[in-house]
């Protein structure tokens, strides 16, 4: 008999047979199920009902007919999707932006954690941490407001600096050449400090004796950083990397929605923004649901594979 | 004390320089936009404003924070955040408690069903059609109800409940207390730290949410702050696409945009000390749990 059984209070329940015990557990805990009820209704209504709604990806959905009264078209929407040059474009944009974000932005928090660890002045360390965590708590709307202002071609700070060096002002947010860079930079600006927290905690978990032993062996600080700290946080780094790969198809829908405009659809339109515009703007419900489903399924496979990898190599499940 | 070598000193200097640069890059946009919000319009448009105000004035700021639309949106955001956070905390805890009892028949399958929704969802359009069907378009319920339980938050609370000593529950049980009494009288008071953390998680996500309002709210009467801000930010931006003399006239001025951004940031700044403290705890609960 384990603790949980005692606390549920079924000393007698245990004595009866397995089936009877289960039934008694249910009967004597009806109020537990009452507690669960709102959560269950939430789960079924707001999480699973939309999954049923995915059926419209296989229909030519008509909002007045509903799912019952719309024509079934099999995989026609997916055929359209494969042949759509718009879709290919957003898929490529999604992958490119996402890969840029991973390649450029993933290592920086690790570096910051390593460097912060070397700082012995607590006041300096705390101040830097306080400052660089802050943007995490701001909404994308606020951040795009900040950056639209400083990147503005008319009197924006960055362009004033460019001009003062004799360059021509750049319209960063309407120029396909620069838009992705702005997206990657602002994403880094918002989350880099925050993403370092996990690594800072991992560093704190490394045993101090290792450093002492290394110091006696004459290892310098850089040597210690490379041979002790880095290997010490490697499992965390790998885990975070796997998690990150799991969201490969999420290139930052909310972020891009607050920053893009028709002039940069060519380089900045991603799956999420495309689904939004097509579905809610043009009311092409079935096709946009098909695009969304493609997104969900690939994302699901990525997360599952990531979890498998992490179980296999790190002996640690993501959830 | 071992004496510092020159190499070590250079190493330190490099680190301090790099980290200071990171801090400055973070602060610079704030300094610039804050300065613009209190500068004269001519100074802003002629690009004179760097990190200090030029021609200090508070009229723009006063205009922004006393505008009735701003105040109204602020009120909507406060209502959604307060009601949403309290309701979410209550329902999340009520769900987490039974699920923390592994012996309870059905809890295992429910946990799997919850976790599955972290990895797979119906997507934007089926969600939208559901909200529409429920009659929640242009209703504040659309901002709260679909976000009542965040599965990650629920799992954090669940594992916290699991870590509590069971002796208190046992004795209450022996005295005939019902499960809900135990939850509300014993478990929840003991869980104040985790509830504070998760409460802040919820509050920030309700406060910062603009995706749901964008999908479900189009009546200007019900626009929360983020959506109002988005209108101002985007209007000013899209007009710079085809900038002509006519357009410039009806564009919300740069200064107004800057002041609105700053005014919308202040509430988060006010609670930032708490956020920092509790969020870091929350992040670590989540990651250590693994």
Automatic annotation (TrEMBL), chain B:
Assigned keywords, A-Z: Cell membrane, Membrane, Transmembrane, Transmembrane helix, Transport
Transmembrane regions listed in the UniProt entry: 9-31, 70-97, 109-131, 182-204, 256-275
Its membrane topology: Multi-pass membrane protein
GO biological-process terms attached to the record: transmembrane transport
Localization, UniProt: Cell membrane
Family per similarity comment: Belongs to the binding-protein-dependent transport system permease family.
Name of this chain's protein: Sugar ABC transporter permease
């Amino acid at each position: 008999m384990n603790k949980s059984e005692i606390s549920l209070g079924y000393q007698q329940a245990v004595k009866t047979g397995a089936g009877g015990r289960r039934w008694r557990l249910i009967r004597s805990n009806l109020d537990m199920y009452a507690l669960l009820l709102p959560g269950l209704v939430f789960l079924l209504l707001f999480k699973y009902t939309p999954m049923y709604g995915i059926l419209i990806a296989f229909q030519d959905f008509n909002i007045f007919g509903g799912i019952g009264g719309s024509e079934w078209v099999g995989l026609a929407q997916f055929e359209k999707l494969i042949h759509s040059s718009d879709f290919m474009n957003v898929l490529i944009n999604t992958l490119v932006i996402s890969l840029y974000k991973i390649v450029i932005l993933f290592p920086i928090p690790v570096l910051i954690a390593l460097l912060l660890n070397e700082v012995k002045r607590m006041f300096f360390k705390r101040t830097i941490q306080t400052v660089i965590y802050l943007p995490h708590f701001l909404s994308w709307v606020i951040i795009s407001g900040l950056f639209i202002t400083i990147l503005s071609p008319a009197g924006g700070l960055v362009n004033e600096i460019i001009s003062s060096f004799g360059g021509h002002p750049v319209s960063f947010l309407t120029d396909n050449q620069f838009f992705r860079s702005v997206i990657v930079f602002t994403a880094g600006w918002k989350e880099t400090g925050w993403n370092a927290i996990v690594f800072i905690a991992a560093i704190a978990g490394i045993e101090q004796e290792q450093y002492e032993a290394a110091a006696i062996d004459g290892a310098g600080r850089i040597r210690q950083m490379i041979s002790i700290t880095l290997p010490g946080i490697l499992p965390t780094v790998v885990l975070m990397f796997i998690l990150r790969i799991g969201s490969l198809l999420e290139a930052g829908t909310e972020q891009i929605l607050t920053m893009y405009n028709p002039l940069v659809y060519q380089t900045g339109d991603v799956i999420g923004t495309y689904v939004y515009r097509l579905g809610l703007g043009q009311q092409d419900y079935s096709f946009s649901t098909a695009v969304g489903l493609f997104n969900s399924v690939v994302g699901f496979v990525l997360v599952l594979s990531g979890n498998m990898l992490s179980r296999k190599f790190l002996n640690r499940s993501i959830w | 004390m071992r004496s510092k070598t020159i190499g070590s000193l250079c190493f330190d200097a490099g680190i301090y320089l790099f980290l200071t640069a990171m801090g400055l890059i973070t602060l610079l946009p704030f300094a610039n936009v804050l300065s613009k919000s209190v500068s004269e319009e001519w100074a802003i448009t002629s690009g004179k404003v760097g990190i200090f105000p030029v021609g200090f004035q508070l009229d723009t700021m006063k205009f922004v924070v006393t505008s009735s639309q701003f105040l109204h949106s602020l009120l909507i955001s406060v209502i959604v955040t307060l009601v949403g956070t309290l309701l979410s905390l209550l329902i999340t805890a009520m769900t987490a408690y039974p699920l923390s009892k592994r012996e309870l028949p059905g809890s295992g399958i429910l946990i799997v069903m919850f976790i599955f929704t972290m990895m797979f969802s119906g997507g934007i359009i089926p969600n939208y059609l559901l909200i529409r069907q429920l009659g929640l378009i242009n209703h504040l319920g659309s901002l709260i109800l679909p976000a009542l339980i965040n599965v990650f938050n629920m799992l954090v609370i669940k594992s916290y409940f699991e870590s509590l000593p069971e002796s208190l529950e046992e004795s209450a049980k022996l005295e005939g207390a019902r499960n809900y009494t135990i939850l509300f009288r014993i478990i929840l008071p003991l869980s104040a730290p985790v509830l504070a953390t998760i409460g802040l998680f919820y509050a920030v996500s309700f406060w910062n949410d603009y995706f749901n309002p964008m999908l479900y709210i189009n009546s200007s009467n019900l626009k929360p702050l983020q959506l109002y801000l988005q209108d101002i930010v985007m209007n000013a931006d899209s007009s710079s696409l085809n900038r002509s003399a006519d357009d410039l006239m009806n564009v919300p001025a740069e200064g107004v945009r800057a002041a609105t951004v700053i005014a919308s940031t202040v509430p988060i700044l006010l609670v930032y000390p708490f956020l920092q403290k509790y969020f870091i705890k929350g992040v670590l609960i989540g990651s250590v749990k693994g």
